[in-house]
Amino acid sequence: MTTPQEELLPGTRRALLHRIAVAQAEGRAPSLVATVVRGGRPVWHGARTSVDGHGPDENVQYRIGSITKTFTAVLVLRLRDEGLLDLGDPLEKHLPGTGAGEATVADLLAHTGGLAAESPGPWWERTPGSLRPELADVLGEGPLPHPVGRRFHYSNPGYTLLGALVEKLRGAPWEEVLRREVLEPLGLDRTTGHPLAPHAGGWAVHPWADVMLPEPSEDLGRMAAAGQLWSTTGDLAKFAVFLTQGDDRVLSAESVREMRTPAAPAEAADVMDGTSYGLGMQIQGRHGRLLVGHSGSLPGFLANLTISVEDDVAAVVLANCTSGPLVSTVGADLVRIVAEAEPRIPEPWRPMREVDPDVMELAGQWYWGTYGFALRLTADGLVSLEPLSGTGRRSRFRPNGDGTWTGLEGYYAGEPLKAVRRPDGTVSHLDLGSFVFTRQPYDEEASVPGGVDPDGWRGIG
Prior knowledge:
Blueprint: H1 10-27, E1 31-38, E2 41-49, E3 62-63, H2 67-81, H3 91-94, H4 105-109, H5 135-139, H6 156-170, H7 174-186, E4 203-205, E5 212-214, H8 224-227, E6 230-231, H9 233-245, H10 253-259, H11 268-273, E7 275-277, E8 282-286, E9 289-298, E10 301-308, E11 313-319, H12 327-341, H13 357-360, E12 364-368, E13 371-377, E14 383-387, E15 395-399, E16 404-407, E17 416-421, E18 427-432, E19 435-437
Antiparallel strand pairs: 1-2, 1-11, 3-6, 4-5, 7-8, 8-9, 9-10, 10-11, 12-13, 13-14, 14-15, 15-16, 16-17, 17-18, 18-19
């Protein structure tokens, strides 16, 4: 399906075309195709190619490499949501005898399982999967070069184990489960384990000469769950919408939000670069915005899916070369171009339909010691606590239905908030995970831990 290009302004469309044209030319890619999604649907498609008179459209398949991992993660979260496993379960509980069973399911999803990055030789991406028929062939004799749970170390064998876990608990091949539980419900009929025409051929471009060499396209066998899939910009655009909004036929909005949440301890270099990893999703800060998604590569192909949830913009970039254009940078730039040129228009402000007087009484200024905070009631039924200075600990809180609230993010995530009342029913203070918030700094009429000096505030004299 082609979406009318007029949905973006002419200047925005030209800037998008210019960006992929530069990427294809400077990256010396045989072809590069991209799609931008806004408001839950594609609003722009562009392609650049070295073949005269031909431009791949949104239905041409490219191999997407490690974006496959995000699909595998969706299958694992489905098992969790159905109660068939817990993310804290050691792999050994469900898939015994691997030699890597100390790692939890969450460790494998977040690449903190201590596993090696690659399978023992030969180079698994350019050789038949039949050379590694068993998990032992994928893992090798020393599968854990790092302590479990201590550091982020990207691991293709880790996702091979997750694919085997899916097969064990579903009693069916990984690809069959994926098709039945994810691809068909989301309408991703051009996402497959093996190429279906029309599809791009994979090429290696010589680093010092403008010549090309065809790359082999191997069936990854046991390692399919780490990088087997072929897809299109059209299908990945739909997948981006799903990863933003969720779809109860596949995975709830809450569960896909969990996938987008950092789950791995960052290396020092990652902290400097502003990158992290969730549950099957890469996370990065770039151009002042939070981006989530995944990149992928296999010999002959590069792929990227980038989403800015806050801007409601996503980009898909696919190329058929082993190296060349930095597709993750291109994807981030496409999102930035649209977000900055045509920023998201917020929904109109609307007042609350009704308000509980006991909750309304809590709105306004509070103090934790001498730090000033504002408690606000919002139309979505939540309350927020924000520092008056604009910087510091802040959170939204959801009501529990019993006059208490639970923090949703940041330092106060999961922490209980309640109003403590005096015998006469008036509010003494707020208790937030044992922190006392009072209406005045160190209010002598409230139960401030440690008490308040009876001589009160004073100057120097």
